[in-house]
Amino acid sequence: MPKRTVRLLSGREYFNNWDDFSIFVNRNAESYELTEHHHDFLEMSYVSEGTGYHHTGDEVMPVSAGDLFVIPIGASHVFRPGSTAKDRQLIVYNCLTSMENATKILEMVPGGDELGRLLAFNEIMHYRDRDGEAKGWFERLYREYSVERTGRETALYAGMLQLMICIIRIHEATVEGAPPPTVGMDHVLSMLHGHYSRPFTVEELAGELGIGERQFQRLFVKHTGLTPIKYLQRIRIQEACRLLRSSHRRIHDISGAVGYTDIAFFNGLFKKITGMTPREYRQSHASITRTAAGTED
């Protein structure tokens, strides 16, 4: 059997300044031109479109949109398309950085040592990006890298940090055997903030993530520090505070606008959270809403 040739790709082929700014991002339509290779830099790759195969030594893995890889220094691999047809191309985003650069970035930010495990992987790591968060960061990095504009270098460093955070969270969730909640939970929070007056149920919110109510409750508290009900109550009371400060609307109307038809319950909850009744809160901001007193209940 002929010996397999594995080419070394050097970061000096991709980075403008190895010692100072060593980040490279591309969006590549895979072909058969690139041979199996290893490299002296860290590579994070994301399959964005199409299907194909990822070759790692003697192993061949089918890949499709949503497959995410972390390829450490020295690990040999190559992507191959499943078809040569132009409308079925295998599109892969790649973010490359030197280990020295990645280490420097993590040392510069508080809590960066938590991401150090990403640099310590000694084998190729494979994940599924179930909710598209990683794809979003790869796309942002590619846009920033492709256009010379003010803040480009800072944006690339910040984007790579966000991508590393995303990957570590996916790694932890994968090890725990549960889907990563980050983007799915962000969608739930966006729903709550955008439609706070709606009577949401925990069952409905859990359904947005495709998980059970108990697991959702646990993940929500871990993500926000509050139960879903208490989180929604705080959003509603914050909005009520804004309306009390900035409008002359009657307190009863504000109660209904933020989702509470029971004015007594609203008044009690408002005082529990703010330490004041709605009337007292409005009066304390009388310098902003001087004419509001005559419109209160």
UniProtKB/TrEMBL annotation:
GO terms for molecular function: DNA-binding transcription factor activity; sequence-specific DNA binding. SMART domains: HTH_ARAC. InterPro entries: AraC-bd (IPR003313), Homeodomain-like_sf (IPR009057), HTH_AraC (IPR018060), RmlC-like_jellyroll (IPR014710), RmlC_Cupin_sf (IPR011051), Tscrpt_reg_AraC-type_HTH (IPR020449). It comes from Paenibacillus rhizosphaerae. The lineage of its organism: Bacteria, Bacillati, Bacillota, Bacilli, Bacillales. The keyword Cytoplasm does not apply. This is HTH araC/xylS-type domain-containing protein. PANTHER family: ARAC-FAMILY TRANSCRIPTIONAL REGULATOR, HTH-TYPE TRANSCRIPTIONAL REGULATOR EXSA. Keywords: DNA-binding, Transcription, Transcription regulation. Residues 186-284 form the HTH araC/xylS-type domain. The keyword Transport does not apply.
